[in-house]
């Protein structure tokens, strides 16, 4: 049984406490209690009793945030322990920006500077939280410092965990040549340690960063990950693996099997406490590729609402750009044009080249519909060149849509005009392509 208080009564109770005892002592005990609770819950959030622990933390969310606030006033160690232990919970139900902001304040305090295991863990936690907010450059810097400390301390388990985080962040920055080997090294270390949960997580991330290039290998990674998560009773991990498998098949045009995996993932997430925005975005993408635009719009909008509640900026951007593709397919060209141009700027600020590419591909498809065929060819040619340079091959289902646009283009453009526009587009820099996209918006 839990009792809730009106805010005015809560304030009155706080005043009365200060009349009868040392409130600092009360807050100290409060902080100590919730640090211990969070640290007991942390490992359980990836085990078979995770729903019970997630619900307990949800009940205590206000207390957890209040304890973290109190830690800023001279309780650095307790604050770092609390924020780091809450990572899994925060990404699902907490306010990412609030926890990340407090954690960065704690890390900047003089007493937090010694290169200890606690600082390494807090740095990695901050890196992961900030990556969800979209500041990938800062996220990478924090994760790299964390990795350095773990290696200085000879902490192999910490090194394995941080390599997975760092590699995933680096891949989000389109640097697959650096990031992919880091996640592979994480997997190798986890196998040496016999850490099944770590193995499953690294395999999950490998499947995610390899999906457009090596479909068979990515599928094998994800299948092994799914098996281990199920053996461990980790419903969250199982849902993530199912979601990534569904995404992999979706992008190969295998809609029926993709829907099976994605809906099973959604069912699991509902049993845990509600879907995360990633699965909603994937279901929206599936509906969009099947021309079920009302369903797609509903999924994307629901996902955006979850992103707003949790502060997950990265998925919000991808959901937004996918929503604009829905508007484009439905013929709402003015709305799509404005937002494609704006969202590519936000991807650029985030440091995601592939995000910029995907948004400008939307503008290229829009140009086809507006009969600006040479403009479309230039944008598509630029996108092809960038994809080749960063090693991010266009997924099968997206390529099929580009091919349909090119069929319309070839029916109207001469071969000479097509060749010339392609050469011009491939020669454009990112800055030139972005300026060209903005030019389209204003013409």
Summarize this structure as a short list of keywords or feature phrases.
mainly alpha; 443 residues; 82% helix; 24 helices
Brief digest:
The chain is mainly α. The chain contains 24 helices and no strands.
Report what the structure shows.
82% of the residues lie in helices and 0% in strands. The chain has 443 residues and is mostly helical. Among the domains are: 20-39 and 51-113, no CATH class; 275-330, no CATH class; 335-443, no CATH class. The chain is globular and about 85 Å long. The model has no long low-confidence stretch (mean pLDDT 91).
Set out the fold topology.
Elements: H1 7-20, H2 23-44, H3 50-59, H4 61-71, H5 76-85, H6 87-92, H7 96-107, H8 117-133, H9 136-153, H10 156-172, H11 176-193, H12 196-210, H13 215-232, H14 235-250, H15 255-272, H16 277-289, H17 293-310, H18 313-329, H19 333-350, H20 353-369, H21 373-390, H22 396-410, H23 415-427, H24 430-442
């Amino acid at each position: 049984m839990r009792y809730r208080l009106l805010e005015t009564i809560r304030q009155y109770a706080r005043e009365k406490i200060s009349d009868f005892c040392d409130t600092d002592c009360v807050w100290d005990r409060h902080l100590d209690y919730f640090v211990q609770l969070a640290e007991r819950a942390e490992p359980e959030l990836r085990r078979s009793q995770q729903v019970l622990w997630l619900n307990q933390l949800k009940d205590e969310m206000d207390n957890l945030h209040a304890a973290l606030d109190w830690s800023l006033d001279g309780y650095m160690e307790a604050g770092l322990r609390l924020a780091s232990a809450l990572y899994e919970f925060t990404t699902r139900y907490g306010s990412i920006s609030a926890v990340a902001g407090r954690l960065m304040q704690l890390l900047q305090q003089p007493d937090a500077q010694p290169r200890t295991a606690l600082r390494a863990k807090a740095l990695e936690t901050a890196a992961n939280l900030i990556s969800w907010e979209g500041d990938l450059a800062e996220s990478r810097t924090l994760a790299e410092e964390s990795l350095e400390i773990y290696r200085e301390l000879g902490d192999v388990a910490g090194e394995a965990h941080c390599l997975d985080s760092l590699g995933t962040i680096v891949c989000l920055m389109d640097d697959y040549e650096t990031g992919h080997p880091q996640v592979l090294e994480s997997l190798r270390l986890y196998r040496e340690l016999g850490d099944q949960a770590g193995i499953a997580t690294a395999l999950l991330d490998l499947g995610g960063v390899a999906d457009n290039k090596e479909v068979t290998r990515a599928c094998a990674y994800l299948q092994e990950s799914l098996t281990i998560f199920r053996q461990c009773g980790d419903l969250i991990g199982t849902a993530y693996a199912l979601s990534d498998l569904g995404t992999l098949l979706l992008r190969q045009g295998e809609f029926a099997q993709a829907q099976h995996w994605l809906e099973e993932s959604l069912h699991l997430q509902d049993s845990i406490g509600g879907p995360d925005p990633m699965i909603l975005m994937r279901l929206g993408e599936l509906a969009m590729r099947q021309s079920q635009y009302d369903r797609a719009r509903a999924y994307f909008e629901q996902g955006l609402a979850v992103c707003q509640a949790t502060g997950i900026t990265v998925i919000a951007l991808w959901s937004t750009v996918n929503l604009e593709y829905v508007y484009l397919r439905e013929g709402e060209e003015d709305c799509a044009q404005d937002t494609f141009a704006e969202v590519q700027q936000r991807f650029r600020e985030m440091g995601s080249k592939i995000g910029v590419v995907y948004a400008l591909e939307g503008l290229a498809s829009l140009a086809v519909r507006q009969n600006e065929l040479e403009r479309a060819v230039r944008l598509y040619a630029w996108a092809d060149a960038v994809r080749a340079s960063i090693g991010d091959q266009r997924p099968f289902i997206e390529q099929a849509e580009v091919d349909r646009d090119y069929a319309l283009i070839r029916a109207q453009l001469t071969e000479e005009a097509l060749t010339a526009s392609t050469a011009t587009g491939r020669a454009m820099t990112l800055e030139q392509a972005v300026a060209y996209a903005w030019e389209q918006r204003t013409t």
